[in-house]
Amino acid sequence: MELNGVILPDRARLAAAMGDILRGKGGLPFYLSLIGLLVGMYAVAAVFIIGHGETVNTYSLVPWGLQITTYIYFVLISTGCTFVNFLGHLFYGKRYKFFASRVIFLGIMTAAAAFISLATEMGRIDRMYRMLISPNPTSPMFWMSVWYSLYMVAIVVEYVNIQTKRHSHKVMWGAFIIAIVTHSTLGSLLGAISPRPYFFSPLLPIYFLFIAFLTGCALITAIAGLTVIRKGLNREYYMQPLVRFLRIGLGLAFLTGFWRLMIGLAGRVEGSEVFRLTAMNSLVFGIGVAVIIPWFMLKVSRSAGWLAFTGLFIMLTQLKTRSDLVTGGFKIPVFRAYETPAIIHYTPSIYEYLILVASVSLVCVLYLVCEKAGLFEIAGEKEVH
Fold it and tell me: Is domain 57-348 in CATH 1.20.1630.10, yes or no?
């Protein structure tokens, strides 16, 4: 079914999919995701109704916690999907085209999931209109809002073009460039915080872009692997480009992560001891488990199932490293007053965990429903078995 050329979920297949769901035949992943979404939305509502201070464990010494981690994690995945779409169209043409609508759809959905988490941290989102009547062009956050608006428009237009088979290289390049500007601005927002040595770095805008590429590749590899298995497609034909992207992403993540750590360990400014405090975790987990182990996992097997597992493994480990990055910046207090602990500890509340579950579940539920309804099956595209 189409609307002005845009593929919509087939009405018969959508009705059949909803019938299967109501009869308990929707599949375990869908029902787990649906439960997660309902419970997560309860947590989102609790933050607004009960209050941020009563539900969230962030406070004056740790103003950013799991909600900001979730926001950064998902928005970087969205950027990574845009990068995969650009490079896939540019270098792999027909092999990539089969996954193109899935990639951009996931880019839109992960951006939406990111903003759900961000909204619970911002408080009075109903007052955001004030940004329009009293803009502050000297603030990086102002420009983030501008670029994010353009980014969402660009990827939606790119999705429409893919679905209508009117793919435009101009729109593709525009989405790619806007994604770079938008999410390097996010990196610069953290990198410009000079009182926090763990954040303060000109490497951070570039680091964010490289991590975005890696996590976007990981998500698409997981989805592609499961799709190849379900449809019985040619694994080598469809998965080889994504494996190459993953290797590049892991190499870039290793390069920037290693040198960010080395520069931090060499620093002698006040507060730079946070790098020495977290050095073992950064080396063992941030570089070893999150980057080096996935590199060798890609050499163990080339089966679609194993590659899908590798993609999921990378996504889980990168979530942990994003949490380490966000909360690590507050381990050493800026103002060391009387009774202020030398090292700050933070543990997310159950509501914060459930907001993460809500963001993950939203993406899963929408993707699974659209997959069952045939949204991504563009007529005329031949599958290679």
Answer: yes
* Distance of alpha carbon 299 from alpha carbon 146, whole angstroms: 42
Q: Could you give the CA distance from residue 68 to residue 74 in angstroms, rounded to a whole number?
A: 10
Q: Which helix (H) or strand (E) holds 261?
A: helix 235-266
**Domain range list for the chain:** 1-56+361-379, 57-348
The Cα diameter of the chain in Å comes to 70
pLDDT of 146 reads: 87
What single string gives the DSSP state of each residue in 168-199?
A: -HHHHHHHHHHHHHHHHHHHHHHHT-TT-TTT
269-286 pLDDT, tens digit per residue, is 887 889 999 999 999 999
pLDDT recorded at residue 385 = 59
Cβ contact 224:200 at 8 Å? no
Which residues of the chain are modeled with pLDDT < 70?
1-14, 17, 20, 378-385
Question: What's the Rg (C-alpha) of the chain?
Answer: 21
Helix axes 140-163, 169-191, angle to 10 degrees: 150
DSSP 300-360: H---HHHHHHHHHHHHHHHHHHHHHHHHHTTSS-SS--TT--SS------HHHHHHHHHHH
Residue 3, helix vs strand vs coil: strand
